[in-house]
Amino acid sequence: MFRTRRLRRSEAIRRLVRETTLSVNDFVYPLFIEEGTNIETEIASMPGIMRFSLDKIAKELDEVVALKIPAVLLFGIPSAKDDEGTETWNENGIIQKAIRFIKQNYPDLYVITDVCFCEYTSHGHCGIIYENDVDNDATLVNIAKQVISHAKAGVDMVAPSGMMDGTIDMIRQSLDNSGFANLPIMAYSVKYASAFYGPFRDAADSAPTFGDRKTYQMDPSNREEGLRKATFDDEEGADILMVKPALSYLDIIRDLKNNFDRPIACYNVSGEYAMIKAAAEKGWIDGEKVMMESLLSMKRAGADIIITYFAKEAAKVLNK
Ligand code: PBG
User: Which residue's CA is minimally distant from atom 6 of ligand 1?
Assistant: First the structure.
């Protein structure tokens, strides 16, 4: 008889035949940084995750470094918004100040910035509005300005999340022409118009004031289109391809892993975090075990990098 259970009989043999393992090296920890002073506000729908002003962030960064998490992904919450999100390329904007602060005080911590406009525009959309929709090519011009200002502030990697066509080409050319040929791009390649972003939009104050993001983010029904989009980003020169969200899109992570010779990242988004936290709080699941199992499933699906609000907690489990 075929007996698959022989290799499951003890922890030792299970360890020997284990195919996938998580490591703290896989994690990127997102940080919300708010303009102002004396701010450390917990986000109601994301227990354990805070919005910090820069003067309050050292403790958090000390912890990230002590846990050996290699990288952070920065999101800015500005004090002023306008139609175009011009604050995104202000050299004294919150993100530019944060990059300088972190690189000065934690030079070995790898700093990635989310490149978008939704936290900075008065209408909450990811670019310039023309006739009630985001204008792709006008937005690209502003993306270049934003990226160059992050680069000048000293960022290690940029991650454009707005889903405008031609973004990677525009960023690569702008960086190369401005002396930043060595700065890599992590493309939010296959980003779906997902309801799982709900808690993030509360956290970052970035919900659209009219309509939705369906004319630029992808339809959750589509898989082939994801490959097409990733192909464009790959050919335009993205260094890392990302799938977002992660848990409901594990098939897409595997598609990218099988089809591209690039590191694959996934974004374990706010709603995925909130669901586990809420169920654990009610005592309906074992929060720690479900967290580790979900992260493992992303790795098994093919993710080389996992962006997750669980990074600190999972690192503590792994370092035990
Ligand atoms: C900005 C952006 C969003 C997220 C990351 N970057 C929100 C959105 O597209 O509406 C979501 C992250 C999360 O839910 O954790 N465009």
Answer: 161
pLDDT at 179 over 90: yes
From 91, 215, 204, select the one nearest 162 (Cα to Cα).
Answer: 215
Pick from 141, 224, 208: which is nearest to 216 by CA? 208
Of 197, 214, 219, residue with least CA distance to 206: 197
Mean pLDDT of 169-195: 98
Nearest to 314 by CA among 117, 296, 301, 95: 296
Helix, strand, coil percentages for the chain (3-state, nearest 5): 45, 20, 35
Query: For residue 202, what pLDDT is reported?
Result: 84
Helix H or strand E encompassing 63? helix 58-66
Q: How much is the pLDDT for 229?
A: 98
The response to whether residue 167 sits with its C-beta less than 6 Å from ligand 1 reads no
Q: What are phi and psi of 31, to 5 degrees?
A: -130, 135
Q: Residue 88: CB within 6 Å of ligand 1?
A: no
Q: What is the pLDDT of residue 320?
A: 84
Rounded to two decimals, the pTM is 0.97
Q: What is the pLDDT of residues 213-225, one digit of tens each?
A: 999 999 999 999 9
The architecture (CATH level 2) of 20-318 comes to Alpha-Beta Barrel (3.20)
The domains of the chain are located at 20-318
**The pLDDT of residue 86 is above 90:** yes
Q: Is residue 35 within 6 Å of ligand 1 at its C-beta?
A: no
Nearest CA to ligand 1 atom 14: 197
Q: What is the pLDDT of residue 78?
A: 96
Determine the Cα–Cα distance for residues 218 and 138; give it in Å rounded to an integer.
Answer: 20
CB of 272 shorter than 6 A to ligand 1: no
Query: Given the structure tokens 């479900």, which residue do they identify?
Result: 290
| Catalytic (active-site) positions | 191, 244
Backbone angles phi, psi at 242, to 5 degrees: -115, 145
